[in-house]
Amino acid sequence: MQSRRVTSSPIAIQLFLTKQCNLKCSYCSADAFLINEREPELRTDEWTNLLRRLKEIQVFDLAFSGGEIFLREDIFTILETAVKCSFPKIKLTSNGTLISNDIAKQIKTINFLNIEISLDGDKETHDQIRGPGSFNKTIQGIKHLIDNGIVPNIRFTPLKSNYRKLIELLDILFSFGIKKISLNALHPTGRCNKIYEDIMLDCFVEAAELKTILFDLRKKYDDLKTSDIETFYKDLPGNYEKIKSSDQKVQQLKPCSAAHSSCSITSSGWVIPCSELFDFRGGNIRDQDILDIWKHSEAFAKIRALSDVSSDQIPYCKNCLYNVLCNSGCRADAYAVYADLFAPDPFCPYWKDQKEQGCLRIT
After folding, report:
1. I need a labelling partner for 328 at 20 to 30 A (CA). Which of 182, 223, 256, 257 fits?
2. CA geometry: angle 324, 330, 331, nearest 5 deg
3. 306-359 confidence digits (pLDDT tens)
4. What is the pLDDT of residues 6-50, one digit of tens each?
5. Contacts of 109 (CB under 8 A, 6+ apart)
């Protein structure tokens, strides 16, 4: 793995304002529910005080998420505080079902928010994943935003059951004037943990087909702006051969930013390296200053130490030809599935081949 410099304070922070949600999506990585009785969530003043502190330590990028953030009655107090603090980049994510015309008008007053709405296909597919009636409610929320001059970005999570539905979804979105969509990564945490292998794309077949679908959609819609899903593992052998037969310099993936320049804060105040690494809690902002946690947390130090581990030191990657290119995949996904930071990325197909041949064994 490539070593990554640790910034003096976090540059980007994801803030999970609530664990509560009015939907119960099958693959929810946060395992969100309508009622959260597990831990008391941060009060309004705790969030606003934290935001002022984040401004003091020069955090650049804020992403507000949940659960469903519009279940918080104080959501606009929190968002307005963030705007008054003049963070350069502020994004919020919602399922869109609670966005009425009045809420859309309030969002409009916060004029440099970037809002993302989650949609997982056409009506039938979306409702199967997120619950009956959720598609129509989300579309209505999107219409309220557009009527108030706000064009949201759409988040789409490709699954076995819905990736082909991107074609129908884009037809709907373009009829509304929406031309930007992001493909959201699937992570094996929360409710997704038990069903991850059943719903994730096969990188040789389904992810490759999705890439072709995106290519064709860009030809159909000249001004379509979309993030691409990387058929990264499928392309590794070809990329390896190209580099091997030329003088081209090996370009590894960028090292993960978790605990190096970014972190997450849960609805109950826990500071964690990323949303998947809840077991590596650095501390709680109710008891400790965020900067002290960032600089001195033993849990964060363990995650940072991973950047000094080369790919050939990961047991399941050390004999792989392609480990010079892949940076050993996502350590958080590996930990989520196998409770081991040095386990293989569950999305990687190459270690699975070795396992089936009896060369590797998950302990």
Report:
1. 182
2. 105
3. 988 877 788 888 888 888 788 888 899 999 999 999 988 998 888 876 554 443
4. 999 999 999 999 999 999 999 999 888 766 556 799 999 999 999
5. none
What is the C-alpha to C-alpha distance for residues 343 and 300, in angstroms, rounded to an integer? 19
- CA–CA dist 192, 27 (Å, integer): 4
pLDDT in tens, 274-283: 999 999 999 9
Q: How far apart are CA 68 and CA 96, in angstroms?
A: 9
Q: Is the dihedral of CA 61, 67, 70, 73 positive or negative?
A: negative
Task: Express each pLDDT in 245-287 by its tens digit.
Answer: 776 666 666 778 999 999 999 999 999 999 999 999 999 999 9
Q: Which amino acid is at 7?
A: T
The encoded tokens of residue 169 equal: 């979804």
CA distance 348 to 33: 31
Q: Which residues have CB under 8 Å from 73's CB, separation 6+?
A: none
Residue with tokens 């992403």: 63
> What does the mean pLDDT of the chain come to?
89
How many alpha carbons lie under 13 Å from residue 307 in its C-beta half-sphere? 18
67: preceding bond cis by omega (within 30 degrees): yes
Q: Which two tokens stand for residue 165?
A: 């539905």
CB burial of 18-55 (b: ≥16 within 10 Å; e: otherwise) equals bbbbbbebebbbbbbbeebeeeebbeeeebbebbeebb
